[in-house]
């Protein structure tokens, strides 16, 4: 066997390189497409995460607004001194309250007289709905309290 028999003919090497020419372009294009899809997916996930955080924060603010409405109505229905004053409906918009800007609440108080074997009681049902607006997103929460006097 001749030591030169393992070498390929120069013309064969040239044809082999001609067949491989452009394969790096296909591989590079494939990698770019995969990375573009990955980047698009990541941006979508980040946007959804940001929307979720906004909803959670404004949801807590709306809950605090609704609690404020219930507390105001409870303080009117069960005063420390004086007569009970439970307004049927009350609306309030927070303007100069840090953390509750763009929020408001609507509260309602229903009073029912209950006669229990000659004893007369006042049954109160107080509800409030707090709402906050953040751009196109509106978040609302409801709070309800019941009491007897």
State mean pLDDT (0 to 100 scale): 86
Helix- and strand-based class? alpha+beta
- Low-pLDDT segments, ≥5 res: none
| Main pleated sheet | 4 strands, antiparallel
The total strand number stands at 4
Helical content stands at 40-55%
User: What is the overall silhouette?
Assistant: rod-shaped
Organism: Paraglaciecola mesophila
Protein name: MSHA biogenesis protein MshP
Describe the structure.
With 149 residues, this protein is an alpha+beta fold. The protein has one domain. The protein is 44% helix and 32% strand. The protein has 2 helices and 4 strands. It has a 4-stranded antiparallel sheet. It is rod-shaped and about 115 Å long. The termini are far apart. The mean pLDDT is 86.
What is this entry, summarized?
The protein has 149 residues and is an alpha+beta fold. It is 44% helix and 32% strand.
Task: Please specify the SSE layout and strand pairing.
Elements: H1 10-20, H2 23-77, E1 89-93, E2 103-116, E3 119-134, E4 137-148
Antiparallel strand pairs: 1-2, 2-3, 3-4
Any key phrases for this structure?
149 residues; alpha+beta; four-stranded antiparallel beta sheet; 2 helices; 32% strand; MSHA biogenesis protein MshP
């Amino acid at each position: 066997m001749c030591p030169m028999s393992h070498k390929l003919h120069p013309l064969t090497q040239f044809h082999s390189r001609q067949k491989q020419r452009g394969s790096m372009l296909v591989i590079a294009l494939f990698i770019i497409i995969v990375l573009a899809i990955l980047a698009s997916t990541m941006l979508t996930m980040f946007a959804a995460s940001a929307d979720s955080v906004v909803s959670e924060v404004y949801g807590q603010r709306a809950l605090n607004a609704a609690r404020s409405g219930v507390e105001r109505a409870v303080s009117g229905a069960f005063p420390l001194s004086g007569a009970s004053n439970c307004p049927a409906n009350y609306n309030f918009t927070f303007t100069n309250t840090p953390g509750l800007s763009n929020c408001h609440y609507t509260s309602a108080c229903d009073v029912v007289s209950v006669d229990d074997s000659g004893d007369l009681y006042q049954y109160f049902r107080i509800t409030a709905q707090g709402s906050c607006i953040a751009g196109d997103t509106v978040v609302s929460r409801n709070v309800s309290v019941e009491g007897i006097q």
